[in-house]
Design a protein that fits this description.
The chain is α/β, with parallel strands linked by helices. Helices cover 30% and strands 28% of the residues. It has helices at 16-26, 52-60, 64-70, 100-113, 155-158, 236-242, 247-255, 282-285, 294-309, 315-343, 369-373; strands at residues 8-12, 31-36, 47-50, 77-81, 84-89, 96-99, 117-120, 124-128, 132-135, 140-142, 145-148, 164-180, 193-198, 204-212, 215-223, 260-270, 273-274, 277-279. Helix 1 (16-26) runs parallel beside helix 9. The protein is globular and about 60 Å long.
Length: 386
């Protein structure tokens, strides 16, 4: 099969999926140009969990070791309801917490090191199945492959009428913030994920994740009907009242800059490609953050797409095969995250059932035995074959 040496890709969107896609293709010999609509390549300042499925993908493109060095391997995932610990789960599972700007910066550096041409201030407005990316300034860029990784509001996706969309919005939303790690949260017992919940008089949640020795990622979740709990900057009084034991962290969150509020939504797109145009990341499968897998699935799909393109000379055929390999896993992750968001079942603890862990345990066809051996799964959590 073709090694892709003479192929060229135009990518719209410089988020996690787009950058991962650009690195994976460039490392396989493609010439790659990535378009970012903002004036600089950056990500907002919160945190992220990089699950085992994504670590396998990022290992294959040479950036996993840097994530391990810069991030934090949580000891456990603890669920706390109304001030009481109700479960402690997945000890020893290979997933890492890291500040989003750090992850984004290392991917951007890896892309440039791989020879990717990064163009900032370049907004894509459409794609054509023949292999054309259309920019806001009227430029028409031809390529062997056009990739829309331009987020949940994707202009590339919306320009392709053959791609059917099923959108749904949910009642909850989340404010994401990165805060300095206070002295009272410096002990080893805080090197974990702690999911704090209260359900009365309405659901509110603080997801508390140590990303490195100096920072904590906090996610403040509430129904969007609760206007005070959905504000940015954080309403310190309402959150401190519900979670008095986290008052120090809440006060720091109230002073934090760079946070944002996102409402929960899903968008199931069928199919993901038309001709030589394909979607990756949130543009293809926007999902609720309840499962914490949106970015990880996008990065997995990007690496698997690059791998599949190396196996086929015909690009549209490769896109169909790629979707066949990744569709079931992606749809399941999207559906599970939506169910968890609607029912708030995570509040009861013991939520990481074998079914829920199928996404994290999914193994790319591109990952060989040596790669898999670097991310062993603890007993009782079996891998899922592609």
């Amino acid at each position: 099969m073709s090694n892709g040496a003479a192929r060229h890709a135009e990518i719209a969107g410089g988020g996690f999926a787009g950058l991962t896609m650009s690195i994976a293709l460039a490392r396989k010999g493609w010439s790659v140009r990535l378009h970012e609509q903002n004036d600089e390549l950056r990500d907002f300042g919160a945190g992220i969990l990089v699950w085992r499925n994504a670590m396998l993908a990022l290992d294959l493109i040479g950036v996993a070791d840097t994530i391990k060095a810069q991030g934090q391997l949580p000891d456990v995932y603890e669920t706390n309801l109304n001030g009481t610990s109700v479960s402690v789960e997945i000890p020893g599972f290979p997933y890492w917490a890291i500040a989003r700007p750090n992850l984004h910066a290392l991917l951007a550096a890896a892309a440039r090191d791989a020879g990717v041409e990064v163009v900032t201030g370049s907004r894509a407005v459409a794609a054509e199945p023949a292999g054309v990316l259309v920019l806001e300034d009227g430029s028409r860029l031809t390529a062997d492959l056009v990739i829309g990784s331009d987020g949940a509001g994707s202009a590339v996706r919306n320009s392709l009428p053959s791609l059917k969309q099923e959108r749904k919005r949910y009642s909850d939303g989340v404010c994401r913030l990165l805060i300095p790690r206070p002295d009272e949260f410096q002990g080893r017992e805080w090197n974990r994920v702690v999911d704090f919940w209260t359900l009365e008089p309405d659901a509110m949640r603080i997801l508390f994740i140590t990303t490195d020795p100096g920072h904590i990622y906090t996610g403040f979740m509430a129904s969007t009907d609760n206007e005070r709990a959905s504000r940015i900057p954080i309403d310190v009084d309402i959150w401190s009242e519900r979670f008095p034991h986290l008052a120090t962290a809440v006060r720091l969150a109230g002073k934090a800059e760079g946070g944002r509020h996102d409402s929960y939504q899903t968008n199931k797109v069928t199919p993901w490609s038309d001709g030589r145009a394909v979607l990756i990341g949130d543009s293809a499968h926007a999902m609720c953050p309840a499962l914490g897998q949106g970015a990880s699935v996008g990065m997995c799909n990007a690496v698997e797409l690059a791998h599949t393109l190396g196996q086929y000379d015909d690009v549209p055929e490769a896109l169909r095969v790629f979707e066949g390999r990744q569709r079931a896993m992606t749809d399941a992750a999207q559906a599970r995250s939506a169910f968890m968001a609607e029912t708030r079942t995570m509040a009861q603890g013991n939520g990481f059932t074998p079914e829920v862990m199928e996404t994290a345990n999914f193994e790319l066809s591109a990952a060989g035995p040596e790669t898999l051996a670097r991310y062993p799964i603890p007993p009782g959590a079996q891998p899922v074959a592609p």
